[in-house]
Write a structure and sequence with these properties.
The chain is of the alpha/beta class. It contains 12 helices and 17 strands.
């Protein structure tokens, strides 16, 4: 597949300061603007004829991948619902202030055209779906695409997502974006930093002991929405020292039955904090839901909260591993 990016301004800043980490992306880190780059994205070879200059991103994790690489000057804007939390305390606050918030709803072809986008960075059910917007539709309109690796459809079914371990997906996207935008050195630096943080958490996990089973509760009362083997929570839980209750589920994000949760009896429940239902309301529901009353995590009130952006593929994943690891080792109070 060849992605033909519309001609855009190709001027490059000599240096982009990355707020919060003290690093810089310099002109020495960049490849020639006109150099074509071929990468593998969701199992397909894709060639980008030139570096994108007006990228539209969908959702918080995807947007922060761009920010982590210091690529806000290459963005036309981002699409993000209003319920993803405050950006005031984030290392990317300056980038959020700089880049235009295009929509609080969803990315559309019309929005991308109005923004004069040359690339839309989204994923399956992270902006793209067969009913409203597909990469092929954008390609026909002359707009390139990049698919979030966590969202790649796997070969098992037409709906299941995920083709590799979640942290590998994060590192793959950083590597690919580093090549596409000519900031490979910065991408390698980030990956090494994240790997070191994860390794440090792993080293603190007691050897030989029973790992606590952890259920990720996203939402839902009739049926809980959770995350299987190919979603970011899988490795956030495992690297933190736990075991994902539905590790055998070959999907990224999907529903299960409460009977599965009761039968497998998790030691800890992690709440995904986002949406119109607050984390406190979700916790109250879990603690009062009769079928769960004999579940270990409920009896012992072992419930921990992580933010939405911690639990989708994003630069926040290593920090989430660190915080959950401290909780599982007994170094944090129940939230």
């Amino acid at each position: 597949m060849r992605t033909l990016l519309p001609t855009a301004s190709l001027g490059l800043a000599a240096a982009l300061t990355l707020t919060g980490c003290g690093a810089q992306v310099t002109s020495e880190d960049r490849t020639t603007p006109s150099q074509a780059v071929t990468i593998t994205n969701c199992g397909k070879k894709v060639t980008y004829d030139r570096r994108p200059e007006r990228v539209v991103t969908n959702d918080v994790g995807i947007t922060e991948l761009m920010f982590a690489l210091g690529l806000e000057d290459h963005m036309a804007g981002y699409v993000m619902p209003p319920d993803k939390g405050s950006t005031d305390d984030l290392p990317y606050k300056d980038a959020y202030d700089k880049v235009k918030w295009l929509s609080k709803d969803r990315v559309t072809q019309e929005l991308a055209l109005d923004a004069r986008a040359d690339l839309v960075f989204a994923g399956w059910n992270y902006g793209f779906n067969e009913n409203t917007l597909t990469p092929d539709q954008l390609h026909k309109a002359g707009i390139g695409t990049y698919l979030l690796t966590e969202s790649c459809r796997n070969a098992g079914t037409s709906t299941s997502r995920g083709i590799m371990p979640p942290l590998d997906a994060l590192y793959t996207d950083l590597e690919n974006l580093g090549r596409i935008f000519g900031v490979e050195k910065r991408a390698r630096t980030l990956i090494k930093r994240y790997e070191a943080k994860v390794a440090d958490v792993r080293s603190k996990t007691p050897e030989g002991g029973k790992r606590p089973s952890v259920f990720l509760y996203d939402s839902g009362q009739d049926q809980p929405f959770t995350s299987g083997r190919f979603g970011a929570p899988e490795q956030i839980i495992s690297e933190a020292g736990g075991v994902n209750l539905v590790h055998d589920l070959k999907d990224s994000w999907t529903t299960v039955g409460w009977e599965t949760v009761v039968k497998r009896n998790p030691d800890v429940i992690v709440i995904n904090d986002y949406g119109s239902t607050s984390a406190a309301q979700k916790k109250k529901f879990l603690l009062s839901y009769p079928p769960l009353r004999n579940v270990s995590a409920i009896k012992h009130k072992r419930i921990f909260t992580l933010d939405y952006a911690d639990l989708v593929e994003s630069p926040r994943n290593p920090s989430a591993i660190e915080r959950l690891g401290a909780y599982l080792r007994g170094g944090a109070d129940a939230s």
